[in-house]
Amino acid sequence: MHYRRFGRTELAMPVFSCGGMRYQYKWQDVPEREIPSDNQANLEATIRRSLELGIYHIETARGYGTSEIQLGKILPLLPREKLIVQTKVAPVASAKEFQHTVERSLMNLRLDYIDLLGLHGINTPELLNYSTRPGGCLDVAHKLQSQGKIRHIGFSTHGATDLIVQAIETNQFDYVNLHWYYIFQANWAAIEAASQRDMGIFIISPSDKGGRLYNPPQKLVELCQPLSPMVFNDLFCLSHPLGRQPLVHTLSIGAARPQDFDEHLKTLPLLDRADEILPPILQRLEQAAIDSLGEEWVRTWHVGLPHYSQTPGNVNIPAILWLRNLALAYDLVDYAKGRYNMLTNAGHWFPGANAAKVDRLDLRQCLVNSPHASKIPALLKDTHQRLAGDPVKRLSQQ
């Protein structure tokens, strides 16, 4: 295993982390006695495999249903000094409620302290305010930190890049969990901002949200040769920018079973050769996008697009066009359908509406700064015809 200094926490962070949102029994809390023994045995085998590989960072959240309470049956049996345990708790208006939830997490995990507490899902200005205002959730976290119950404080986010940067610039967090991978590079400015403040940088769900890379389309498989799409994406995230000190410290592996680590491990011997291995693959991927979409579109499609809150009907134009690009350029149709049909259904975790009603909306004013304003309404309609299906809920809502 390779390790990187996790920013100002000074923790030696493995480049892969054991994320805890896929091996638990249920997304809802249930009594411990209702958790099947085979599910608990699989979770414990996954944790032991993680530690065998040198992946000592075990990450979960209060919002991951039975994950915490199931981890609480194995973590106290392991050498505490070797573990880096992280849980996450959503910020709320009531600081007292937030404190109660954090303390419940500690009870579930059966630990005296947690190494990393993340404020979970700072996705909106309101949630950032709950976190940072005087007497808010961060003040509670600092109090618990002074009591030795928390070592370091960070935040996770699915929010817009400018909001993430705003949270980083408060300089009140030690690390950040955020989305960034080959198919979604919009948050690079946030990564740079976090690096400038010596924060730990943790990438969420690079294999699932990064394109469902555990089940990639054949076109993407061919474009990523000689690597699998999963190994390519891991290497890209852990080596960017090429030729300089990489800024990302760790990637979450949402392991559901012990063998889910295996493909990721193929990345480790390649880290010192990324400058040699990645450029031909990156060139093929870029050319495939140009061949499918046209060079002008590839270079400028995102320019001047409005935020969904400034669009009639709250249509999330940037997200819709991004998903269309992925479906056409890389055959990531199943991924694009899954994400597209979350629009209007996922709240602030994937906000805005799809293009179902675009024929009834006048988008001219909101697209005035786009070089592609005249054709975007038709492209939105085309995307809806390609990708629309049954509404999709977040995993935690299923």
TrEMBL record:
Q: Give the Gene3D superfamilies listed for this entry.
A: NADP-dependent oxidoreductase domain
- Matches recorded under InterPro entries: AKR2_Oxidoreductase, NAD(P)_OxRdtase_dom_sf, NADP_OxRdtase_dom
Pfam families the UniProt entry points to? Aldo_ket_red
Which SUPFAM superfamilies does the entry link to? Answer: NAD(P)-linked oxidoreductase
Going by the entry's taxonomy, the superkingdom of the source organism is recorded as: Bacteria
Domain NADP-dependent oxidoreductase spans what residues? 39-176
**What name appears for this protein in its UniProt entry?**
Aldo/keto reductase
Q: Which organism is it from?
A: Thermocoleostomius sinensis A174
